[in-house]
Write a structure and sequence with these properties.
3 helices; four-stranded parallel β-sheet; 18% strand; STAS_dom_sf; MlaB-like STAS domain-containing protein
């Protein structure tokens, strides 16, 4: 299924946050995909207001049984989210997983054989 997209443009005021959370819930229920892609490219300069907005959108999505994925985040916003301890899935970012088959990990001397 193709996830729904919510475009976040310009600085978002506190009054708009509740409506955007409702939009995330409605998109999750309407699409059935379990993911809403939030296009944050036009959100404006990164700041704590954007962090608060994204945290609230993620909370609304989780409460509805889904999650949000970021599209086109500013590197500064990505760094700020990491700084405050919020992890978001980002479109196009490689998912962390096990190394490919045939790749050997380093072994310390004295480690027991498996």
């Amino acid at each position: 299924m193709t996830p729904a997209v919510l475009v976040l443009a310009g600085p978002v005021t506190k009054d708009e946050v509740t409506g955007l959370c409702d939009d995330v819930r409605a998109l999750l229920e309407g699409s059935g995909a379990g993911v809403v892609v939030c296009d944050v490219g036009g959100l404006g300069p990164p700041g704590l207001g954007a962090v608060d907005l994204l945290a609230r959108l993620q909370l609304a999505a989780r409460r509805s049984g889904g999650r949000i994925r970021l599209r086109d985040p500013d590197p500064g916003l990505h760094a700020l989210l990491d700084l405050v301890g919020l992890r978001f899935e980002v479109e196009g970012q490689v998912e962390q997983r096990e190394p490919a088959l045939g790749v050997e990990e380093a072994v310390e001397p004295g480690d027991p054989a498996v």
